[in-house]
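2024-03-11 09:14:02 INFO receiving multi-entity request
2024-03-11 09:14:02 INFO entity count = two
2024-03-11 09:14:03 INFO echoing inputs for audit
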Amino acid sequence: MRGRIVDCRLPIVDLYRGVTSPSLGKIAVVGAGAVGSYYGGMLAHTGHDVRFLLRADLESVRANGLTIHTGGQTIHVPAHAHASTAEIGPCDFVIIALKATANAALDELIPPLLHEHTGLMTLQNGLGNEEYLAQRWGAERVMGALCFVCLNRTAPGEVTHIDHGTISIGEFRRPASPRVRALVDAFVEAGIEAKAVENLVEERWRKLAWNVPFNGLSIAARATVADVLGDDALRAEARGLMSDVLDGARALGHHIPHEFADFQIQRSASMGAYRPSSMIDWEAGRAVEVEAIWGEPLRQGRAAGAAMPRLALLYALLRRLTR
Amino acid sequence: MRGRIVDCRLPIVDLYRGVTSPSLGKIAVVGAGAVGSYYGGMLAHTGHDVRFLLRADLESVRANGLTIHTGGQTIHVPAHAHASTAEIGPCDFVIIALKATANAALDELIPPLLHEHTGLMTLQNGLGNEEYLAQRWGAERVMGALCFVCLNRTAPGEVTHIDHGTISIGEFRRPASPRVRALVDAFVEAGIEAKAVENLVEERWRKLAWNVPFNGLSIAARATVADVLGDDALRAEARGLMSDVLDGARALGHHIPHEFADFQIQRSASMGAYRPSSMIDWEAGRAVEVEAIWGEPLRQGRAAGAAMPRLALLYALLRRLTR
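2024-03-11 09:21:47 INFO inference complete, emitting structure
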């Protein structure tokens, strides 16, 4: 079984439920792994015009479409599978679900998808991805989304949705806009919990408060969530790493209360021996998003005056262990 | 080749050179690995009455004695090899060179070696070993020594001395005494650089300033000394870990200047791709002295009010990785 599990379970706040969903126009999904296939596939299933850029799974999806196992059902989605973004052509929205470590590939992939008002929504982890898009194709195009979902890619073109699935969508350095609300409505109509966020970067720091310790210790200590929580010293360090992240966020003007970290530790207990995506990637020899999850938060926090000593050590270890 | 390399290269300060060496009486070496065989063997070579407690190498040493390759020479030492400390009987000095992780074995090994004035000298790493001996057999018996030496155990009963060799000897919580100076004289006469130290525990903290980062990162980052020094982030963390150690030492009343840490980083450059003993032990599946080198310094420093955040994270990782 080829598995890619995506980090799950952060709190759902201010759930936004749309009522009707207008057309989003033409949507491209770039990076159709488990995350891209699931979110894009669910939109296609409710009638949206979604085009998938595929490589390894191209022939399989062309022949059989996408298969999504979710909530006890199996959904077959006849999907538009494409070998290049030139073949897809200009779109209204581009959902980017590549690994952050593959961002350089976007330089060639994105231009054929653009018309004057194309919106670019990155569904990637960590910090720096919105900036990457904004620097190249203009900040006004850029949106970001965070997903909290457990998915397994169980075969070519086949995704098993295990748990959760909330997607939080926001504009890059702006409050939520009508296009964000339109995307939220479309996901809600597709059966996915979705919300619009007014401050995307603060949401990213909140998610980092979980990913930094648990994804990081999964590699540096070779520890599942249960392993971390079951070891007094590691649990204290997970909490300490969260404090470092919140210190960085605070230095940058995001006041996330320390009770949030305590809450994150507490709610992680129900996850059991969950293996964060970074652990699975690392053990499989795949790239780990070290810069997006640990390097960029450290650099941004330090530039703003936060010390973050635990994060600095963890980052140095991960950079070396994943090289 | 069975190799055990012992950490080397800390500065030689105030070298004490004796002129004549009186008899030390009867000496037992408990834990005759590379370190015990080398230091005990060199004393035996100059005529001291040294008894070696041996297990795996017993028959080999009984038949052939010890062989020490050092400084271009090969020294054969007809050694007294014993299977038990009861067979050795009461001694004037006991040199303890077991791994700190095996200290529980001392509870049975030491009593047969004691007469009223037997001195116990631990040659072990880290903190807590003098205390272990003092609690059981009285503080007045206890001395400690630090050795800075590169040794390989190349065959049963055979040690190859690669580089360095300084031994620093002190009393437990007292200034150096006549018996310490007698031991120093005996080692100097045997061709080994030796010095008496007035403040043993401060020497231990100085050695920890090197062992904590370089032995620790050798496991946590799987990095040789050259790997650490050649990676900007890891080098900065090695220096940060040294700062944590010096903060702990300072909280306990030992004022080791921060220039000492800079100096240690600088002088480590000449060590090249040196693999600290902990890395070799870990890779071979042998016990690593996690509590003596990381756990006990952390507990003592924290109890005195030092924060030591990097050391705390490193300790938590090492405890897990070596479990």
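2024-03-11 09:21:48 INFO post-check: The first strand of chain B starts at residue 26 and ends at 30.
2024-03-11 09:21:48 INFO post-check: Residues 18 and 185 of chain B are 4 Å apart (CA to CA).
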